[in-house]
Design brief:
The chain is α+β, with helices and mostly antiparallel strands. It has five helices and nine strands; from the N terminus they run βββαααβββαβαββ.
């Protein structure tokens, strides 16, 4: 289902692979490609993504986000994975991020993700989620991973359910999306091994 990458590219701090994908933690030199990804998907992501101002879509801002990602990854509080095709590692397919890590008696985190509009419908996100959640549950011993999705985002709900997540309830006024605070459905997956 997954394996750690045999080698890393100079722009990667860490990488793993699934059957068709490479999941990488980027270094700041990848900020230009990340910015291009967000610009070309801006309209597509707008109704699902948190509210951003214009500066978010600049290389300088994305470089700062990547630096933050690296710092928080090293601290064990964020697992920020950029998704590329294994046979085309320069093509960003999407992003999968694990955050809000709680250790000790909780052993949990939350997951968020988005995909390039032109890459939807290929099962890429399911493959990425399955591989990364398996890795985190096996290596860190995470007990619970949560996902929060807008009720009308039927494709994302179908994806998370195919990955073995169960619906639990509602997170009221959870995130500021497209200009207003929105409720999200909550899902969870347990490590039952």
């Amino acid at each position: 289902m997954y394996k750690l990458a045999d080698r890393q590219y100079s722009y990667e701090a860490w990488a793993m692979e699934t059957d068709r994908l490479r999941l990488s933690i980027f270094r700041p030199q990848k900020a230009g490609d990340v910015t291009d990804y967000f610009k070309r998907n801006r309209k597509f992501h707008a109704k699902w993504a948190q509210t951003h101002n214009e500066s978010y879509f600049t290389k300088a801002t994305q470089k700062e986000y990547i630096k933050y990602d690296l710092k928080e990854f090293k601290r064990g509080f964020l697992f920020p994975l950029w998704i590329t095709l294994k046979d085309q590692p320069d093509v960003i397919v999407g992003r999968l991020s694990f955050f809000n890590f709680a250790y000790g008696g909780m052993m949990s985190c939350a997951i968020g993700y988005h995909l390039d509009e032109k890459m939807t419908g290929n099962g890429y996100m399911q493959e990425a989620i399955d591989g990364a959640t398996s890795l985190l549950m096996e290596t860190l011993g995470l007990h619970r991973i949560e996902a929060f999705i807008l009720p009308e985002n039927e494709k994302s709900i179908a994806t998370i359910k195919r990955c073995g997540f169960k619906q639990e309830g509602i997170r009221y006024s959870y995130m500021h999306i497209n200009g207003k605070w929105r409720d999200h459905l909550s899902f969870y997956k347990l490590n039952v091994k």
